[in-house]
Amino acid sequence: MNELILRVAESRDQAAFTELFDHFAPRIKAYLIKLGADQALAEELAQEVMITLWRKAALFDPAKSSAATWLFRIARNRRIDAARRDRTGMIDAEDPSLRPAAPEEPGEELDARLREKRIRIALKNLPEEQADLVRRAFFSGLSHSQIAEETGLPLGTVKSRIRLAFGRLRRTLETDQAVDTD
Question: Which of the four, 38, 89, 134, 137, has the lowest number of CB atoms within 10 Å?
Fold first, then answer.
């Protein structure tokens, strides 16, 4: 996802933006609802976050945070701004969404990056048909039904290939065989 944001920043890559939008917009909307926004406000704020991504992608620094962290921080700030604009006087000063997020522990960010790298390396060791299905399910956020529809494979085949892939990934990661060979 970091690479996609960089492509948007460098060349206004619409395909990269579309992929980011499809992946993050529903997740951001759900996050905003969890923070207390109603459906309409959550939809509006999610759209604003994605517009911010398009306009300010050049401000994204993958050395400082992941794509998800950056976008969810923007979403949280938009939610706070919306609550402050609400002139009904019903802002609860104790609302957790109005409190600043705890700073990320440097070790947690590093651990997440290392985990992601190990998973990507382990994916290279899977048969391509399994790796493709795992990418569609977990990096693109598609359901098994959507994958079956896109690939033309029976739903049972999609599920069994993903289950087999997870078994292989788990064994590879548990035995620490996901070592970069590049």
Answer: 89
- C-alpha 150/C-alpha 133 separation (Å) is 10
* Contact of 37 with 81, CB cutoff 8 Å: no
Residue 62 tokens, joined: 């993958």
Looking at residue 176, its pLDDT comes to 64
Residues whose CB is less than 8 angstroms from the CB of residue 39 and which lie 6 or more positions away in sequence, other chains included: 33
pLDDT digits (tens, 9 = 90+) for 43-100: 999 999 988 888 888 888 888 888 888 888 889 888 888 877 765 555 555 666 566 6
Show contacts of 30-37: CB within 8 Å, 24+ apart.
Answer: 31/72, 31/75, 32/75, 32/78, 32/79, 35/76, 35/79, 35/96, 35/97, 36/79, 36/95, 36/97, 37/79, 37/82
24, 71 Cβ separation under 8 angstroms: yes
